[in-house]
Amino acid sequence: MEVYQIPANKVIMQHNMITSGRYDFTACQLDILFMLLACLEKGDDKDKEYDIHVQDIELITGRKWNYQQLREASQDIGSRMFEIETTEKYIQLWLFKSFTYHTGKGYFTVAINDKARPYFFELKNNFTRMQLKAVLSCSSKYAKRLYALACQWRSAGVVKMTISDLKEMLSLKDPKGKTKEQFERISEFQTKVLDIAKKQINEHTDVQFDYDLKKRGRSYELIVIYVDFKKEKQLTIDFNQSIEFQKAVRTVTAYGVSEDMAKLIAHKNFDEFLKLIEQMKKGKTAINDPAAFIVGVFQKKGVISIKS
């Protein structure tokens, strides 16, 4: 058996269906998934099984893996269903076929479910790129999931969704209402999920994570997640403008749009901008100059003067 040592700076790629899918994995089960992703190579035989070495994660994170906890995690993972829902179909899927533990050798072997292989290998342009050490260094399962979501949306800078949709993604709420919703009080959801995730992501990963909750009427219904690279220059705060507006401007300028034009877009048209980014991501034709394309769209809408 050849010992495979995974480098600490390993970048893993995860299918977006897994990133934003609906499933409830523990932190340990997520680490098994991420370690498996680190072992995959393009062109792997369809029957290949993957050895995961306990020492690898210990070297990467400096944290000990409890071998008994691993066995319990993989035993329980067999009952954890992964759900994929599109406009055409709804799929119930189990990612793994088997786990084999090699007594006294410090590693175990994972076999991928045949039906799940497309979500590991047929990525095309539909994948999330993230740092293995970063996601392993977060101890909260919610921090791991939200870090992956942040990486998926890092180019846009902002993702907006209903709190209900986010809870369903994290398996805190059953879309069919058959089980009791967890963290029903918004303050509890913030302190036990969002704030812990924010702290861990900002301390241990390569992205800066922040969020705002928005009300519709008297209740909080929407969450806006902001994602910025830590390596980028810190945003200078103008106290005459709201923080939300300044973050919106920063998001638009990330696509190469000048600050003056970005302010015009962010002023009253930021939701339209986010919809445009979504259309660009889903488009089949590559856009060589995103800034020029965005400016052109908003010139046609009369938001930006042709002479700007």
TrEMBL record:
Q: Which Gene3D superfamilies does the UniProt entry name for this protein?
A: Winged helix-like DNA-binding domain superfamily/Winged helix DNA-binding domain (1.10.10.10)
UniProt-listed GO biological process terms: DNA replication initiation
Report the SUPFAM superfamilies cross-referenced here. Winged helix' DNA-binding domain
An example of a GO molecular function for this protein is: DNA-directed DNA polymerase activity
* Highest taxon listed in the record's lineage: Bacteria
InterPro entries xrefs? Initiator_Rep_WH1, WH-like_DNA-bd_sf, WH_DNA-bd_sf
Specify the Initiator Rep protein WH1 domain's residue ranges: 12-151
- What Pfam families does this protein map onto? Rep3_C, Rep3_N
User: Which family is annotated?
Assistant: Belongs to the initiator RepB protein family.
Q: What is this protein called?
A: RepB family plasmid replication initiator protein
Signal sequence annotation: none
